[in-house]
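Quick start: what a row looks like.
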Amino acid sequence: MSGAQVTEQTIKELCDAAALTVELAKKAGADDAEVLVRDGSELTAKVRLGEPELVQEAGSRALGLRVLKGGRRAVTYTSDLRRESLEALCAETVALADLAEPDEYALPPDPKLLAKQIPELDLYDPAVADVDAAWALREAKTGEAAARRHDARVTNSEGATWSRVLGATAFATSGGFLGGYRGSYCSLVVEPLCDDMTDPENPKKRNGYWWTGSRFLAQLDVAEAVGIEAARRTVATIGSRKVETQECPIVFDPEVARSIVGTIFSVANGSSFWRKSSYLVGKEGEVIASPLVTIVDDPLIPRGPGSRPFDGDGLPTRKNPVVTKGVLGPVLCDVYSGRKLGRASTASAGRGIGGNPGPTTSNLIMEAGTTSREDLLKQTPKGLYVTALMGFGFNPVTGDFSRGAQGFWIENGELTFPVSEVTIAANFDQILKRIDLVGNDLEMRSATAAPTIRVSHMMLAGTSR
């Protein structure tokens, strides 16, 4: 049960379908048309306690059409790519556009700005497609078994899951753009459970996880190592307790730090700016973070998890600074949000099959510092090392940030006991400006990445004194 390879012929078929649909939409009366076609397949293989629990493989091919007519727009999609079905889709979509409200900003990009070349970014690994369900199950079983073997306190498991995604994308516009590319991604996650009998009258289950992921099969960590790290992280939470309410340094593990970076984008994009739903509106070119903070969005990294040769408007992608030494750069925009703000696109458009384009990220990276994680901890006399955040306590308009947290208490520069059921809080503006140490441990396993970071002080709510 191995996946079908995504070939250059696949891309050609998708490009042909996209170009045909643009032609049919114009014949149906559209002023302009944009067509996105995607072909994809997924394999998920999960084991739990050594036994297969789920094997699922699915494939799909779908086409999304956006037409623009007289300042009006409409979006539709279909999985039926026969010519007669596409003709009907185009006619229906143009009719829907006639009924839509006019929008003076709903115009296609200037044809002169469209991508002329499709750079090769090495985003596809044939070896990922060659994986069959039996092999994936063995990898998952190996990872889970390693976790259960590593420590006798691992008494149960949420399972281990090996998964892969293969895909091809084609995009065509009436402005003259036509291009496509293919990609792959695979991952393994192991999720052990352990019994926490620290308080025999109130026993608890503690869960944890670890994972590896890459576009290329050979770049995955070995399954045993993933399982052992998952077990180590899980049993380390045994005996978790609260600490006293106080103000103290907060150190964010890279897994959590990347969510902080993602939060920055949520308030530093063209859509949130024109809607005025961000506390950063009006602060481009101003200091919004520590000078240690530099964040870039780079879609052109070879083999990058979020890399792409063109954006959802058909513009050639480019590296964009988001924050440079603490200074907020021009926010990421697609063509539409750029027009709403009276500026050019940053070639940061993304779109789904059934939606309009909007600003998005590719490889959003907070650049590494020069301090090792060990030295960063040594320079922290006391504080909380955060390994997980819970809840959704962030207000993008005011910047107020309050999240449940768990991790480990730092004492004399070392991790001591595990901590849970506490809350950390500060205004997000303060959090960014108080970053005073940045680690050198950046890893690019996911499209949003960050190293270990330390915030000099935040309010930690735990037990009363």
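That is the whole record. The mean pLDDT is 96. The domain at 8-233 is CATH 3.30.2290.10 (PmbA/TldD fold).
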